[in-house]
Amino acid sequence: MRSLSEIKGFTPALCSQLAKLGIPSIQALLLHLPLRYLDETRITAIRDLRLGEQTQIEGVVVHNEVSYKPRKMLNVRLQDDTGIINLRFLHFYPSQVTAMQIGQRLRVFGEVRPGFFGYEMVHPTQRKVGEDTPVNQALTPVYPSTAGLSQAAIRKAVNLVLQPANLLETLPAWVYQSLQLPDFASSLRLLHQPLPDMALTALEDRTHPAWQRLAFDELLAQQLSMRQHYARRKQSQAPKIAASQTLVKQLQAQLPFSLTAAQQTVIAEISHDLSQPHPMQRLLQGDVGSGKTIVACIAALQLIEHGWQVAMMAPTEILAEQHYKKLAGWLVPLGIEVAWLTGSQHKKEREHSLSRIANGEAMLAVGTHALFQDQVQFKQLGLAIVDEQHRFGVGQRLALRKKGQQAQLEPHQLMMSATPIPRTLSMSYYADLDVSVIDALPPGRTPIVTKLVADDRREEILQRVHDACAQGQQAYWVCPLIEESETLQLQTANDTFAYMQQTFPQLKVGLVHGRMKSAEKQAVMQAFAANEIHLLVATTVIEVGVDVPNASLMVIEHAERMGLSQLHQLRGRVGRGAAKSTCILLYSKQQCSQIGRQRLKVIFESNDGFQIAQADLNIRGPGELLGTRQSGVPMLKIADLERDAALLEIAKVTADRLLENHPAAVAAHLQRWLSQGEEWIKV
Q1: Helices within 305-342 (DSSP H only)
Q2: Tell me, what's the pLDDT at 442?
Q3: Which domains does the chain have, with CATH numbers?
Q4: Which of 141, 169, 455, 546 has a C-alpha 20 to 30 A away from that of 393?
Q5: Any coiled-coil ranges, and where (predicted)?
Q6: Is this prediction's pTM over 0.85?
Q7: pLDDT tens digits along 114-135
């Protein structure tokens, strides 16, 4: 495939500027599509101008003056046969003053505003014209750009590559004709050079069939790449692990609870995967408190019973330690050794854990990112479990998986997430995984009542906290920052801790935040779990994994500043016992943005993690929800998962048909859409 530098007109400077925009090739430039369009196909008389409209006028300069009060400014007056308008420039070059001399005919495009001398345009685009200079015959595209790269330069570059040889169709005609969509070449030409009679709204809201064709192509490329990766994984080798005959029964006999039907369904899906000769790569989704840990434990026992080790990795020490204690409590009575590994361990303790993992004494290793460091060696790793998987980068998860590659066998992988993934996100970015969902909470969990309270009612909330703790219950008070910040006038954890100690001298108040040493955090959390601390002041470090059934009240400061997923996770720290639980979202009336209000409305109205995740996707887009999972992977640029959900469904089915019957079309399509055929990195 020819590079841009081989084409006449593409100077090294232009290629360098395009590279800054992520445009290294002809196809990338063709798919660099307009953000919006200007209608420069007609000229409006000055007397017919309307406030707020973006429009094009033409006239002769009758006044040109640079003034210096109240600041330096260029004022130009333009006259046509029907009236005069003022053009105002706050930033300008001497060459612009010269180009707009009195008597010069200009064609000007800009937004009409009210001004001191009547209507005006501020910083409009303008160019010299003659009396018979024709107007544009097509709408003018406006592209994403970078400093030093003008719109005119991008348009010229696009027109240079908009040639038939670069616009070859990659798909069989039945694919796009069945959707009543145009072919690729006409779609691209129309979007780069739209005709003047086209409706701007259909172009700008991307519902025009030409936009839909390219959105479909992008979604299809994503599906093809994912399905290819999925198929390749099925060809890799992994240990075949039969179902557990004894350990799982022994564990269930000692559990103080029964598994839900939803948990049993998921356990069966995982057990089936582990019995296959290729690596499991399953994502286990379950809302806050749905019981994912016991499911992971039962999966681990299937491996352990047959002599294979298991690693479980969590993103924070608080969560990792919680898993360690819970799993050790279940497994040690069965005679299974569990090792604990974290970056803050003392050297002697760490070396002891490393030795037990390496010689196979410890069949289960639980820890943080310390698990994939070079010095960690497993005797025979058969399963890697990654909790809150979106918090780890691709490289980190790959490093853990490589710990288990013995005799050409890859370990199985189970990823867990308490942040439910909306269906469209799962179908697109997670299409290479098998997905299991625990869609029911264990019995005995009481629904959490959520209340929205403005921070001018703080005294009422303090009284409520006091009353709850006085009755033997426990409470969290969550603050977003540790130290004072002048830019964000938010209540800090340190100040709040001091204030709570002063306000409630009869209560035992604790403090936990991310900058405390691990041993300090653990001591505080243990005291809270043992009901030795009544009120825990904390940052969002307690967002995941903290399980204190007696804590039935949570107050979240400046809730308007937090994301939906974070609010839902925090709220899930209460309601874990039989007591009626309440989560109070304190918000600032003055600082609450429109998006902040949207988020608070969603979290107030719903306890359903999947509904909340869908709303989060609609508000924020997929980028933040995916976390670091997609390191090195391009995001969708044209398709929109909410708007184009129907196209995504069709792309999924079409991808399977093409992979089975049209391998050449698959190769050509991926070559165009995925950076000259590069594979999307998937772990």
Answers
A1: 317-331
A2: 73
A3: 4-37+142-205 (no CATH), 42-135 (2.40.50.140), 247-438 (3.40.50.300), 448-606 (3.40.50.300)
A4: 546
A5: none
A6: no
A7: 988 889 999 999 999 998 899 9
